[in-house]
Amino acid sequence: MNLFQTVKYDVSCREAAERYGVSVNRQGKALCPFHNDRHPSLYVADDHYYCFACGAHGDMIGFAANFFGLPIYEAAQRLAADFGIDTDRPPTKEILEKRRQQTEAQQLMENERLCFAVLSDYARVMRDWKVRYAPQSPDEPVHARFMEACHKLDETEYYLDILCAGDSHERAEVVSYLLADGRLDKLKEKINGRDAA
Predict the structure, then answer these.
(1) Which residues have C-beta within 8 Å of that of residue 47, sequence separation ≥ 6?
(2) Which of 6, 51, 157, 159 might form a disulfide with 32, Cβ 3.0–4.6 angstroms?
(3) What digits encode the pLDDT tens for the residues 74-95?
């Protein structure tokens, strides 16, 4: 395993940022040290950082390189020295397990965000359809999109509520349900108007 891989296994981007004096809040936001930031615009995750204001981004080694003005290799060496990493030994089983768990947790969070985004867009479309395709008289035939909006809007809002306020088990169940059998992809098709009614 080379220096870069060893440092990436042993140090998270958040740990590096905090080690060098960047105060990261619980949501992963911080004042960006790469420009004159007055409101937190830097997002710091375990494996990367991104500033929504100045566009600075990268991994933990890139963070150290930008922070200290070092070439990438020297930044990796600096991280290894600052965190006491022995670059001649492979990572321990404990470190590998910790990284695997972090990766799984990150994937779960990404899936939750994706489901929330798609459901939010779908709910917006359903609200629009409920108004746009509502029958104007009792004699007018009921449009399929109006019926779908009447049937699906409450369910969609229920899932959104769980993703916002449910516990981790409830959120995982909703995500699992939506990702199964291509349900989320079907919702995306409806949102994009490819599903003709």
Answers:
(1) 8, 12, 13, 59, 60, 106
(2) 51
(3) 999 999 999 888 776 666 677 6
DSSP symbols for 114-172 = HHHHHHHHHHHHHHHHHHHT--SSTTSPPPHHHHHHHHHHHHHHHHHHHHHHS-HHHHH
Rg of the chain taking only CA atoms, in angstroms: 23
- Whether the CB-CB separation of 68 and 75 falls below 8 Å is answered with yes
Task: Collapse the DSSP code of 42 into the 3-class scheme (helix H, G, I; strand E, B; otherwise coil) and give the result.
Answer: strand
Residue 56, Cα to own-chain centre: how many angstroms? 18
For residues 44-49, average pLDDT:
87
pTM for this predicted structure:
0.49
Q: In the chain, what are the domains?
A: 3-82 (3.90.580.10), 93-191 (no CATH)
Res. 195: pLDDT tops 60: no
Q: Say if CB 33 and CB 53 are below 8 A apart.
A: no
